Amino acid sequence: MPFLIRSCLGLAMIILLPSITSAQETRAFAAPDGSYTYRYPAEFWIDTEFADGSGEPTGVTASTTGNGDVVFGLYSMPVREVKEVSASTAEAYVGQYVKDFSPNWKIKFKSYTMTTMFGRPAVDMRFDERILQRTRQRRIIATIVDGKDYFLMCLYRHDKADKFGPACELAVSTARLAQVQ
Questions:
Q1: At 2, is the secondary structure helix, strand, or coil?
Q2: DSSP for 78-133?
Q3: Which of 55, 84, 147, 163 could lock onto 50 through a cystine, CB 3.0 to 4.6 A?
Q4: Helix, strand or coil for residue 32?
Q5: CB 141 within 8 A of CB 125
């Protein structure tokens, strides 16, 4: 192989390698109380309670002018009527979340699919949320563990779904609860 071609290939690898590597780099988010963790892409950063960066960490974000609002967070609440998530209870379980959003005319339920989170059956619900002239996707991936309802919420613009959908799936697939001693 001529020297010039080898040099060009080497230069191309030097230029491309950081972008290939950075696409696979992740960081771990840990709840302030240590109750859970999940992984997120390295290009995200920690989101906090207040816009000035103060307060407790609440999740991760990739919000910019170009991206729009991109926010991921994992939350919990007491279990309601449905006590476990399975294929047979999924519709009723999803109905609880749809009911929560029904007073808000800006948020419309679109669909759900079964998935897993924390190694358990979960539902991946998709809502459309209208903000001014744009619609963004509100994904809620939820399951029940030890009498608690856990849900990971991922917000991002529809036109950025190819970029942020996989990041949401990364968070779901790597979410872990702390072991109770």
A1: coil
A2: E--S--S--TTTHHHHHHHHHHHHTT-TTEEEEEEEEEEETTEEEEEEEEEEEETT
A3: 55
A4: coil
A5: yes
Residue with tokens 């749809």, as numbered in its chain: 98
Closest of 65, 74, 1 to residue 36, by C-alpha: 74
Tokens, residue 23 = 């696409």
Q: How many helices (H) and strands (E) does the chain have?
A: 3, 10
Model confidence, pTM: 0.82
Can you name the CATH fold of 26-177?
Protein Transport Mog1p; Chain A (3.40.1000)
Report residue 163 CA to chain centroid gap. Answer: 12
